[in-house]
Design goal:
alpha/beta; nine-stranded mixed beta sheet; eight-stranded parallel beta sheet; 10 helices; 23% strand
Length: 370
């Protein structure tokens, strides 16, 4: 039956996270080409995959470096040969973390985010004589209302950073409000307005050639090289059920799934839908579910089925009426709602090409949350 696939390695235990290398490489090439055609540098966010082999595939395809969320992620990737990292987070740096940043700067080009004068001064004090070795970018709030300053406040933060001895290298934002039905277009408009205003203000204040960095997977196809100099999508490498439901990828674009076993059947009572249980619960799928999502994940080969309940080791699948349930012991491919959560829950992934096992990749930066 459709959707029953052989084990990724011949004897792999389920649930198993499986990466289709053919699809992965196609996704990497497509985003690299799209950014290049618009004249935008690509700096993918590696918190999605956390895997050194994927990072090197992205750089080989033209990425200028990686975006990461933590110093620990930066350390993990630099140790595996990545030479340019941007920690896109408003770090509050103590002396210990300053030592880690300076050690990274011995091996790679390092930039970090700041979104306050106090954060910039704390960074400079902690770095001491090495302050100029770490570049900073000012984070903007372009509508997601998380961290970041308003565009009109960017120059004040930049001046504080520069006066403390830091090198200001530009501005960045995350248009996270692009994650929703019909939200990408308005989020891109907000992003471009915020970045344009802040970049122009920095130039007027004497800061030369600032990087203008933005982007998310939903907004990336709409971002313009007229504003952005750099794009930072992450989820595009794998795709996930959220991107599928938002129309940002097709099922054939999804490179990561969880191979899972049918372990239990539940016939529908009083004419209700039949259900079955898969052994992929929240401890491998993660528990994220957006308000607009139709379930706790999707089945890659059965588009009209839905995961209607999730516990730690159980996924309850509601099956279309009148169709025979998959046999006990059969294996199905589950697509998580938010793939970044899944990757951080496993130590390694199984890699396949054209259905044949290619080995395993360690999740290099797993757990590097500080």
């Amino acid at each position: 039956m459709s959707g029953r696939i052989p084990p990724a390695t011949g004897s792999v235990a389920t649930p198993a996270v499986v990466v289709d290398l053919d699809v992965l490489e196609r996704n990497i090439a497509a985003m690299a080409t799209s950014a290049r055609e618009r004249g935008i540098a690509l700096r993918p966010h590696a918190k999605t995959h956390k895997i050194a082999e994927i990072a090197h595939l992205q750089v080989a395809a033209g990425a200028v470096g990686l975006t990461v969320a933590t110093i620990g992620e930066a350390e993990a990737f630099v140790a595996r040969g990545i030479e340019d990292v941007f920690i896109a987070y408003p770090l509050w740096v103590d002396e210990r973390d300053a030592g880690r940043l300076l050690a990274l700067a011995d091996r790679a080009r390092v930039q970090v985010g700041v979104d306050s004068a106090e954060g910039a001064l704390q960074l400079a004090r902690s770095l001491g004589p090495g302050a100029a070795r770490i570049g900073v970018r000012i984070e903007l709030d372009s509508g997601h209302h998380r961290s970041g300053v308003l565009p009109g406040e960017a120059v004040g933060v930049a001046r504080a950073a520069a006066s403390a001895g830091l090198e200001v290298r530009g501005v960045f934002t995350f248009p996270g409000h692009s994650y929703g039905p019909g939200a990408a277009g308005p989020a891109v408009a907000d992003e471009q307005a915020a970045l344009s205003a802040a970049a122009a203000a920095l130039l007027d204040a004497g800061f030369s050639d600032p990087a203008v960095s933005g982007g998310s997977t939903p907004s990336a196809p709409l971002s313009s090289g007229d504003t952005l100099t750099e794009l930072r999508p992450g989820v595009y490498v794998f795709g996930d059920a959220q991107q599928w439901e938002l129309g940002n990828c097709r099922p054939t674009d999804i490179a990561l799934s969880i191979e899972s076993t049918v372990v239990s059947h539940r016939r529908g009572a009083d004419g209700g839908p039949d259900r079955f249980i898969l052994d992929a619960g929240s401890k491998v799928l993660g528990s994220d579910r957006a308000a607009w999502a139709t379930g706790h994940g999707r089945l890659l080969d059965h588009h009209d089925a839905r995961i209607v309940a999730l516990s730690e080791h159980h996924a309850t699948v509601e099956w279309p009426s009148g169709r025979e349930l998959p046999p006990l012991g059969s294996r199905l491919r589950v697509v998580p709602n938010h793939v970044c959560m899944t990757i951080n829950l496993v130590d390694e992934v199984q890699v396949v090409r054209d259905g044949a096992a290619q080995g395993r990749w360690a999740v290099t930066a797993r757990g590097r949350n500080s």
